[in-house]
């Protein structure tokens, strides 16, 4: 590979040089990067640079001939596991889930039962669908956040590392407004409020769960959820709108259970009660990531609303809950 000169793009602005290099050349180790900088082979605008130097939009970085290391071969083998048929199928599946897409990001409506990331015994997951479409390390789409496997609804995906960093910063600052809908057993009292109950992980029945904890308990995590009852069927069930102010594992499920109103279909945090009007759907989790609202990296506020999954739509109809009409996408 000959000497090359690469211009820093807008979404790479203010990245550390070593991280910028590894995104483009995943096979480069930190030691190699530092040596190339120390010997002056990697330069920014013709000047020597350190691995910790920051690159800016429009700057030109000199890249010397680079060896192809084992990681590059691993990358080739990894991408080769997806056949053309796999890629076509995954592309079609993602397209069916996609509610919004532009040059920077996409928002998908994940079905209940599809895992977000891989794990023991999990072969099909969103991260894998995205990975199979990658043509290079620069084009790999990146999940910005996660939701539980059995939870349906919105996931935000960045198309570049720069956009991923900007969106991650919004999540960290809690500038992205997330709204969930749930159907629960019972009706909370009062009908709206804020649950400010710390959570702590424990093992129950061989599974990791989050349970309520005292504020000063060692290992307790601050967890805050805003809720409002949007509808109810007598005293047996209610439709809740939930807005998490923090992002703890299973936070909404644990908080609903802590109120004494567990989410329908939540075997881990609730109870299995036979309800004839719901038929087969009562054993499926009734938690849906309904809406995302955030400042788009290129300006303006983007709002995306996900239609209910079939099992929750059936339940809403059976219980007489009327869903207000909202545009799927709005931007201003």
Automatic annotation (TrEMBL):
UniProt KW Cell inner membrane keyword: no
Top-level enzyme category: isomerase
- EC numbers listed for it are 5.4.99.-
Q: Which reaction does it catalyse?
A: a uridine in RNA = a pseudouridine in RNA; uridine(1911/1915/1917) in 23S rRNA = pseudouridine(1911/1915/1917) in 23S rRNA
Which keywords annotate this record? Isomerase, RNA-binding
Q: Name one GO molecular function term.
A: RNA binding
Q: Where is the active site?
A: 148
**Region span, Disordered:** 47-86
UniProt-listed GO biological process terms: enzyme-directed rRNA pseudouridine synthesis
RNA-binding S4 domain: which residues? Answer: 15-74
The record's annotation in NCBIfam families points to: rluA_subfam
The name this protein carries in UniProt is: Pseudouridine synthase
**What organism is recorded for this protein?**
Entomobacter blattae
